[in-house]
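## tool: complex_structure
## caller: assistant
## args:
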Amino acid sequence: MRLLSTLLIGISSGSIYALMALALVLVWRSTRVVNFAQAGQAIASTYIGYVVITHTNNYWLALPVAIMAGALIGALSDILLIRPLNKRITSGPVKEIAPVIATLGLLGLIRSLVGVIWGGDLKRYNAPVSINGFTFGHTTIPFSRFNLLIVFTAVAVMAIFAFVFQRTGLGLALRASAFQPEIARLAGVRVDLVRTVGWAIAGATGAIAGVLITPSTSLSPNSLDLLLVLGFVSAVIGGLESLIGAAIGGAILGIGLALILEYVSTSLAFPAAFIVLMLVLIIKPSGILGSKAGRDA
Amino acid sequence: MSLIIKNLCVNHGSIEAIHDLSFKVEPGELVAIIGANGAGKTTLLRTLSSLKSPASGSATWDDSDILNKKPEDLVRQGILHVSDGKTVIPELTVKENLSLGGLWRKDKQDVALATNEVLDLFPILSERASQRADTLSGGERQMLAIGRALIARPKLLLLDEPSLGLAPLIIDQIFSAIKALRNRLGLTVLLVEQNAMGALGIADRGIIINLGKLVAEAKAKDLINDPGLSAAYLGF
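## result:
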């Protein structure tokens, strides 16, 4: 029972890491930018969701509002920051690194703005369903209705991703622009626009992760920083190129962390993430789906 | 609708890849640009499809300027560039590569019609529809790239070395497909080639360039029969 419930908790937290990883992978493969600002975009969206919750007490209204805010912030990040940089800097080592540094700057900027608007103190809001663990007979496990909701939401998001990417014209344009932007252009695809849509989808996905994780923690301008790190670790475990890899990476990290915290020590959260990462990369250096085949998904 | 190029100069890094190039392609004409490696052929096509900016000069299609535009906008004007080497997206299936060519078009019925025409023209693409494009042979990739361009209902085709890396038998097949397309659809075609014999064999007119400069311009037949030129530039 103890093992089963640890696995379930691992899958629940892994679902949130997977969402963050999906957002990061989406931006990485469409624009080759390691987007540190993903945590900033998510935190701003989560605060907007928090405002909706405090005014309406309705989590189910807050979630779509946060998603839309995340999409908008994501799109604006690309249009106002990344696109101009890529237009101005066309070659040299600066070309690779400038957008990454810019996203670091954006992360700091958003955190400061959020702090100025909402203050630095910890905010809280409640989960929409019970956070008390399920009870079987006389035993209560830590896995709650809310954990189930998190897993369900993450699976739903991945199903939507799979549908959009594999079955729609937008998905085809997103994949083509990510793999071979020049050929996509010559086929008539508006690659710049498609990339901005990719940033918007990533922003929306990060917002979902932020709104889902906050009831279990608390909200402050840097409360999603750890999630950013765990999202990156999941993305790298998954091979960085693959959306399915990101999902699998999140699950591996979630379960691995839960096992270490339960059976080894609760003070190991942060190093444990890197132990899991190292283990995976030693066994499979390119990540779970890091080969060219990983780009299929 | 003709393609008119005047005094075009294009730099490639610090090198002048195209120098003061002027020529005209008449509506429905198939013109071959012949030159060795490094003659500036690819640079010329990349400039005409706005993948590259020129240093100076002008180029117009259908009386409108086509330089320094967005490639995806030129596609909407009927200018389709089939680039050399990497012509298809290896990670996508054959079907997806084809669909890509019609994504921007509103008239989905005509896209379906054009797709069927392409599959009739190159039946092998039909057989391979659900395979990844990187499983195709060189010739099949070239057919796929040309097919994708056709789905856009092009008016001007810019073809960059379609014979590159193909076996002689396949080259003949690709060249006759290009000629047949021109004849049937009335396309204007600018074909850039190192394979002078093959390209001049199907072209109406040939232009020979060397180190970015125009060396000779004449009817394709006359170029083939000019002993001086063939020795100096055509390699036969």
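## assistant note: Residues 1-78+156-167+176-236 of chain B form a domain with the Rossmann fold fold (CATH 3.40.50.300). The beta strands of chain B are 3-12, 15-25, 30-34, 56-61, 64-65, 79-82, 156-160, 188-193, 205-210, 213-219. Handing back to user.
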